[in-house]
Amino acid sequence: MPGRSDTEAGSAEGAETAIFTEIPVSSEDILNCSYSNWYDQFSSHTITEAKIFRDVPEEFIEYLQNDDIVLPKDDVSESSLFQAVEPNSDNDYSDWEEGGEDEGGEPAPGKAPSQAQNPKVLDNPATKFARFHQQIKDAIKELGSVAPKLNWSAPQDATWMMMNNTMQCHSATELYLLLKSSDYINHDLGHAFDCVTDKEIPKVKYELVLRKWAEMNPSGEFRCFVRDRQLIAITPRDLNYYSFLEDIQDEIVEKIGIFFDDVLLPKFGSNSFVFDVYLPKPLDRVYLVDVNPFARKTDSLLFTWNELATMQPNDESPAFRMVEEANSGRFATKAHSENRVPRDVVDASLDARALVELAQEWDRSNQ
């Protein structure tokens, strides 16, 4: 998952310019972190099963890359995205009626055009990848609800588009909205190998991963950094203050260390990588959530990449860093907020009436 850029380098008058510590990343390191390349080996250690589509049609990739967001409506009853707005005197829908044409077939004054007069409204983007679309619908029906991702990234930055504010998708339509709204997904499609030092970039075979939805307590998620086959650092993924973590941090580090030594170290192909785990109470099991490249594009959270590239490994225990009460305000910003929109837009997206009111207010402010 792409993260914040690291900007430790700087200069001062009369001093030499600081230089980033180089972090070598190969194309093989990137490919090793692709979901299908590690899932088969470690599926028994993941919290839920996953359906991986390895032969994603080019038409689907083109659909994700298109700037416009046109969604199929063949599963309207299964999605919360298409909620009817009750016409009233306070919204722009009050004058819209079906069959609002005059005898000549033209829209009557003050009436909205019907779909028959606007062929573009009838376009169903899924017709270009109809078989794949049906496979996605079947997989969602089989798994119940899913969290989608491509080879490397999940659309965590686009959850503000969803009614439940999570990546949980009950329909293909919701899944497409998440994927098309995400900068992280765009990263996979066009910038996955930007950080590598190889001269030849391999041709990417894109895959769609549908993971069965599972509720996870964010306080139990941790990001772990491995450099040269040594676990060097651990930090919570959720940058909120949890007072109880201080009391159990030694146990957390021990559990993750055992998991790394016994499960990941013997089998994972890269010497340096970043892995995410989930430890639910009572901390009797470690679940593998994801694997990312040991590269600056991966969010380093409470560490800096300069620290991670230069710190001396502790043979006894990796460095553990958490948000403490003294600095909790420093990390009060919500995760992925740089990819979001103003709060009033988010609130309005949860209420059709509020969305209409926001649009009216916007029109008044521009008059």
UniProtKB/TrEMBL annotation:
What is the similarity comment for this entry? Belongs to the CDC123 family.
State the Gene Ontology terms under molecular function: ATP binding; metal ion binding
Q: Specify whether Chaperone is a keyword of the entry.
A: yes
Query: Is Ribosomal protein set as a keyword in this record?
Result: no
Protein's organism: Brettanomyces naardenensis (Yeast)
Top-rank lineage group of the source organism: Eukaryota
Where in the cell?
Cytoplasm
Q: What is this protein called?
A: Translation initiation factor eIF2 assembly protein
* Keywords attached to this entry: ATP-binding, Chaperone, Cytoplasm, Magnesium, Metal-binding, Nucleotide-binding
One GO cellular component term of this record is: cytoplasm
Write down the Pfam families for this protein, in alphabetical order: D123 (PF07065)
Looking up InterPro entries in the UniProt record yields: CDC123 (IPR009772)
Q: Where is the composition biased (Acidic residues)?
A: 92-105
Q: Where is this region: Disordered?
A: 83-120
